[in-house]
Design a protein that fits this description.
about 260 residues, binds pimeloyl-AMP, binds magnesium ion
């Protein structure tokens, strides 16, 4: 689902909310209602254009992957939090210049994009030519809602900043972000990710590298409606294939890792 304030495809459609799900057919109807609710009563405003696209997926084509490991770091200022992302992403081999360019790219956006920028993990150069639209990772979900919630609750027990609007909101944000980041990390050429929300009152962001998802708070000042995502790729990665995997490969994140490797 993709919701915007005006025309979702054109110039004036300020981004409100997006959501990607991968569910069995008997759940589709109730998920549609949930998506409608979400688009109409979002913190960023009420959508005037809502696109919902439903694709049938062959169960045999679904790839199952494990979630990233969740860590958490809390800082007292935005600049300290953003600075921490250098050291964290350096652990994954991502260069300082690439992190700086990514931080600058997100924080200088005039408004939030609907997808992510793809950036070279060493040079910091933007690789995709998708402009304000970016790459939208799609066709993913967790395999088992209850089991996944338990996994996330354990992670949240590590420390939940009060500014995030309480544990329920944090659980919902974390759920989506971990599913997305885990799928992102399962692509060929993936080096890491940097993200913070476009929801004005959700200051927690994250960096991911290797098998780690590290929540960082606060990545932005409260009230700021601009967020963004940067996906880092190693030089030489076949870009079109990796983008295609992110956009189209059906993926379920499961704790029982059953893919034969
Ligand atoms: N694929 C690629 N980029 C996306 C997608 C997607 N499916 N969805 C959102 N983005 C980009 C887009 O530029 C948005 O403006 C930006 O990311 C932020 O999206 O507590 O809520 O959905 O551990 O607002 C992270 C911390 C929360 C969660 C991230 O992102 C936690 C969040 P939002
Ligand atoms: Mg948002």
């Amino acid at each position: 689902m993709y919701a915007a304030e005006g025309d979702a495809h054109g110039g004036n459609g300020r981004h409100i909310s997006g959501c990607e799900r991968l569910v069995t057919e008997e759940r589709v109807f109730s998920i549609l209602a949930m998506l409608w609710q979400r688009a109409k009563s979002h913190e960023r405003g009420s959508a005037r254009t809502i696109n919902i696209r439903v694709d049938a997926v062959d169960p045999a084509s679904i790839r199952r992957i494990p979630p990233l490991t969740i860590e958490s770091e809390i800082y007292t200022t935005v600049s300290a939090a953003r600075n921490a992302s250098y050291a964290l992403l350096a652990k994954g081999g991502i260069s300082k210049i690439a992190v700086r360019r990514a931080l600058e790219a997100i924080s200088s956006l005039p408004r939030s994009m609907r997808g992510a920028m793809v950036v070279d993990a060493l040079s910091g150069e933007r690789l995709d030519a998708l402009g304000e639209r970016g790459v939208r990772i799609s066709h993913m979900d967790c395999e088992n809602e209850e089991e996944f919630a338990k996994f996330l609750r354990n992670a949240l027990a590590l420390g939940q900043p009060a500014a995030d609007g309480g544990p329920q909101k944090a659980m919902a944000k974390l759920r989506e972000a971990v599913v997305l980041a885990s799928k992102a990390a399962s692509a060929e050429g993936y080096a890491g990710e940097l993200c913070w929300s476009d929801d004005p009152y959700y200051p927690t962001g994250y960096v991911a590298h290797g098998r780690v998802y590290c929540r960082i708070t606060p990545m932005k000042e409260p009230g700021n409606p601009v967020g963004g995502r940067v996906l880092f790729l190693w030089p030489g990665t076949p870009l079109a294939e990796t983008i295609d995997y992110w956009q189209r490969q059906p993926v379920l994140v499961t704790r029982e890792f059953c893919e034969s490797m």
